[in-house]
Specification:
Its cofactor is FMN; heme b. Its EC number is 1.1.2.3. It catalyses: (S)-lactate + 2 Fe(III)-[cytochrome c] = 2 Fe(II)-[cytochrome c] + pyruvate + 2 H(+). It contains 21 helices and 18 strands. It is of the alpha/beta class. The radius of gyration is 24 Å and the shape is globular. The longest helix has 23 residues. α16 crosses α18.
């Protein structure tokens, strides 16, 4: 069969290839042979010999099919006259989920408020809860098992007190920051969060455009719903991007991704090290997985006997053998600065420095991996107690639970170079790019107000004297307690 782009095929031609040994589909009037991909994407078989455009658009970003399939898979163009007159029973019939309050006991429809009426991260979360599909909400908002760490992440900020200075000229305030040598308009960035297209058709593209207008840095998720090149192109010229990396069990795919990132001008690699396996996120498991796939990792969500957890099902490609010895390989392959994301104790922070990383991201995956681990702000205090020299050896970032400008200021006062913000920016996508920009402005305004009321005019002035951590200091392990290998009981013979 010809692969001539202008080769016209009839609907009858398409229907002749409708089984698991010979499977063709039409997407946006282009016909493809996807037989070889049925093993990894069995759900496609239900569209064999049919127009699958609607199902494709609900799952994939535009252009993915052309990037993924080899040229020989393309068979031709579906006759447009037949497309117009296609019988209803042969057209795509995927149900569109109605967006209501998400509460089965309520019959009231929800009216999304105008964007200007939202003045806090909680407002964005409320909108997301009431407008996202039940599965998208469960995927974004869920955390591991009993949500203990998820709660601690934000609550610990409330237990750290600010100690303002007064009678200072605070007419002009500067909160710009350099992050890995890249200029940022504020000391925070968008943390990697998967499948942003579940919240808005533009997904990661809207995040990139919002960062462009607001002067922020986006860490692109390894499980983004758009191809890496599309996300980078959505930003302005020379806009800095970082890439999150889950090392693939097929190392050749990771090599290709790292080389592609360098070619596209990505400025740093954030290697996620705290999720060799995804945590048990029960809210996500209870609802059947929507048919989604990542444009970058190729991971696909489906359902199995354990449930419909999108995080668990899409994380099956992650290499469980990843160790410190792989850091030099990632550094050499990418040729970019490497940040270790997911450090949760001083011992591993020191280990990361030994391997020459440029940054350490204190993170517990937003409470989504192992529940009851300590909040990252306690890890930040642990570094001060056990290895304070590390703050001069690399940049330190904090991720998880940041919802207010005061949270940002407290993290900076305790030595963080910047903080990562994930879920709130996903929720802001309910309004697309404008939502991303509006949330950024809320954080900036709160930070500026907090700095003025604390008596500082530049983020470089933020230091330990600005905070009182007495309420949580007793939770931070001492150097003796930290060496758990030395005092753990000996195994019985």
């Amino acid at each position: 069969m010809s692969s001539d782009p202008s080769h016209i095929l009839s609907f009858h031609d398409l229907t002749q290839h409708s089984n698991d040994r010979d499977c063709w589909i039409a997407v946006h009037s282009k016909i493809y042979d996807i037989t070889e991909y049925l093993d990894s994407h069995p759900v496609i078989l239900k569209y064999a010999g049919r127009d699958a455009t609607k199902a494709y658009d609900e799952i994939h970003a535009p252009g993915i099919i052309e990037e993924t399939l080899p040229p020989e898979s393309y068979k031709g163009i579906l006759d447009q006259a037949e497309v117009i007159n296609l019988p209803p029973e042969q057209k795509e019939d995927i149900k569109i989920i109605e967006k209501t309050t998400g509460q089965s006991t309520s019959t009231e429809t929800y009216t999304k408020p105008e964007l200007f009426k939202l003045i806090s991260t909680q407002d964005f979360e409320d909108v997301a809860h009431n407008t996202l599909t039940p599965k998208a909400w469960a995927f974004y908002s869920s955390a591991a098992t009993d949500l203990v760490t998820h709660s601690w992440n934000s609550n610990v900020y409330r237990r750290i007190m600010l100690r303002p200075r007064v009678m200072r000229n605070v007419a002009k305030v500067n909160f710009q920051r350099s992050i890995l040598g890249c200029a940022s308009s504020a000391p925070f960035f968008i943390s990697p969060a998967a499948m942003a297209r579940l919240a808005h058709p533009d997904g990661e593209l809207a995040l990139a455009r919002g960062c462009a207008s607001e002067g922020l840095i986006q860490v692109i998720s390894n499980n983004a719903s758009y191809p890496l090149a599309d996300v980078v192109k959505a930003g302005r010229t020379n806009q800095p991007f970082f890439l999150q990396l889950y090392v693939n069990a097929d190392r050749s795919k990771t090599t290709q991704l790292l080389q592609r990132a360098r070619e596209l001008g990505v400025k740093a690699i954030f290697v996620t090290v705290d999720a060799h396996v995804p945590g048990k996120r029960e809210a996500d498991e209870r609802i059947a997985a929507e048919n989604v796939s990542s444009a970058i990792s190729g991971a696909v969500a489906s359902n199995d006997k354990k449930g419909g957890g999108m995080g668990r099902l899409m994380g099956q490609y992650i290499d469980k053998t990843l160790s410190w010895h792989d850091i030099p390989w990632i550094q050499e392959t990418s040729g970019l600065p490497v940040v270790v994301k997911g450090v949760q104790g001083a011992a591993d922070a020191k280990k990361a420095v030994e391997y020459g990383v440029k940054g350490i991201m204190l993170s517990n995956h937003g409470g989504r991996s192992l529940d009851t681990v300590q909040p990252c702000m306690l890890t930040l205090l642990e570094l001060h107690r056990i290895c304070p020299e590390i703050f001069q050896q690399c940049e330190i970032y904090v991720d998880g639970g940041v919802t207010r400008g005061t949270d940002v200021l407290k993290a900076l006062s305790l030595g963080a170079t910047a903080v990562g913000i994930g879920r709130p920016f996903l929720y802001s996508l309910c309004y697309g790019q404008e939502g991303v920009e509006h949330l950024s402005q809320i954080f900036k305004d709160e930070l500026e107000t907090s700095m003025r009321l604390a008596g500082i005019t530049d983020v470089e002035q933020a230091g330990p004297a600005l905070v009182n951590t007495r309420d949580v200091d007793h939770l931070v392990p001492s150097s003796e307690e930290h060496d758990w290998i030395r005092w753990r009981p000996k195994a019985r013979m």
